[in-house]
Amino acid sequence: MKRFRTLGWMFIVTFLLFFVNQGRAYYVAPAYVALLAAGCVGFEGWLESKGGRTPRLGFGLLWGAQVIGSLVAIVLMKPVAPINSPLWEITSSVNEDVVEMVGWQDLTAQVAGIYQSIPEAEKPRTVILAGNYGEAGALDLYGKPYDLPRVISGTNSLWYRGYGESEPQTVIVVGFESSYASHFFGSCEYTGKVTNSNQVKNEETTHHTGLYVCREPRRPWNEMWQEMQWFQ
Length: 232
Description:
Number of domains: 2
Radius of gyration: 24 Å
Mean pLDDT: 90
Structural class: alpha/beta
Shape: elongated
Order of helices and strands: HHHHHHEHEEHEHEH
Helix content: 40-55%
């Protein structure tokens, strides 16, 4: 029992730390595995102490709840519902991360079109600056067939990867307002707006939706890069 109390306090303290620091809800998800395991041990001991048919009924109830709970979790947490279907409307309202998974291939295709329009002489010193880790990851994953240039980002640990061995001269800016881009570059050309084929509203299609090609860095990159670090 003492171990159970210790485990409970460990969870409560961890939960409160993430809550105060505005962490995402799933940050504490691994802790529930330990809590469920501890609860099962306690529940099993209680059932065995009752004797008779109680253990059999209790285990049946436990397995039934496990199956139902797993099915509900899969539907709510995994992108299994067809996009824009009635079930999708329900699951996306519960799990907003599912909405943010839509449109990465469309974004990559848009950026690829912009990259192809850049003069060949500029391409060796061209990079893509992504505003968040989702955009950076998608462009890196889906950009290989398009032969896209290096994707850089100041988000979280991506900042430590730097901007490359040579200073970029042409930058395709994704996920920023024009004022942010203009702070670092003397010339920024608007080249389009982020969209997706499913017409789903998410961060990319409703916030900082502009796509830009920027040139003429205002300062050396080693100075600008110190300001291009942010956390999400």
